[in-house]
Design goal:
single chain; 270 residues; mainly alpha; 71% helix
């Protein structure tokens, strides 16, 4: 509302303000799409995806070293890694809702196997009952892996060089590794432990997410590790992703509110 000494000075003043506001709105409408495009530009999305998984990568490097999940790794270490997995997937989910870029899924595709472990129903209860058996069989499991490792090096080099035909060979080697470990576990552990072999082994193998899954071997239904089924009690995710998303949402809401106010003011003036 204009509060001035006379009507003659009110109308020009309000019109001047309306013209200024209209120009500001036009500038905001022009800049906002550019801002969204800048935060969702290809290289920027790639960098933000790397930021999402940074904590997970650091945790794996610090906690696993040359150890594998199927060596009887202590449950708390696995729990800590799963905590990082959930944070990474939540951050990626927020980034996808903002940018809708398929390269986000591609950059995180290697997390599929560890996500399946983390979202396996009642995993920690089941694993606690069988950890000692995997620990006792760790020497045999290492020998199985050494045989696999000796053969997979050349195959991995071919895949890294773009030879996708070698993927079938790698998947065949991985299945042989699973059979070797599963045979030892079958001799010394119970059926519940046998059902865990694939879940524990695959997160330790490169490109395991690109090999077809084994047929169902257990009555327990595992929860999907897709972004949409992440536990709602999980941490809110990477701070950088959350800050950008909240800041952009606030900017959009503020712009819409200002626009509505300008529309009302413009109608009053006219």
């Amino acid at each position: 509302m204009c509060v001035v000494a006379s009507v003659s000075t009110c109308v020009p003043l309000c019109r001047s303000l309306s013209v200024f506001n209209a120009l500001y709105l036009a500038l905001s409408v022009a800049v906002l799409p550019a801002l969204v495009q800048a935060t969702c530009h290809g290289p920027v999305v790639k960098q933000r995806t790397l930021e999402c998984r940074l904590n997970y990568d650091n945790q794996v490097k610090a906690l696993l070293s040359d150890r594998a999940y199927y060596y009887g790794l202590d449950a708390e270490t696995i729990r800590t890694i799963c905590h990082s997995v959930r944070r990474t997937l939540k951050c990626a989910q927020d980034l996808k809702s903002e940018c809708h870029d398929s390269q986000i899924d591609i950059a995180l595709s290697d997390l599929k196997s560890i996500a399946e472990l983390c979202f396996y129903r009642h995993f920690f209860e089941v694993y606690a009952r069988n950890q000692n058996c995997f620990l006792e069989q760790s020497a045999s499991s290492r020998r199985c892996y050494q045989d696999y490792h000796a053969q997979q090096q050349t195959v991995l080099e071919r895949i890294h060089n773009g030879d996708d035909t070698s993927l079938d060979r790698l998947c065949s080697l991985q299945e042989s590794l699973l059979r070797c470990i599963r045979a030892n576990v079958r001799l010394h552990c119970n059926q519940e432990a046998i059902q865990l072999v694939s879940v524990l082994v695959k997160p330790s193998l490169k490109f395991s997410e690109r090999c077809s899954d084994d047929p169902p071997r257990r009555p327990i239904k595992k929860q999907s590790p897709s972004y949409e089924t992440i536990d709602k009690s999980s941490p809110k995710g990477n701070g950088a992703c959350a800050i950008r998303a909240h800041w952009l949402s606030g900017l959009v809401l503020a712009t819409l509110t200002i626009w509505q106010t300008w529309r009302q003011t413009w109608r009053l003036v006219l």
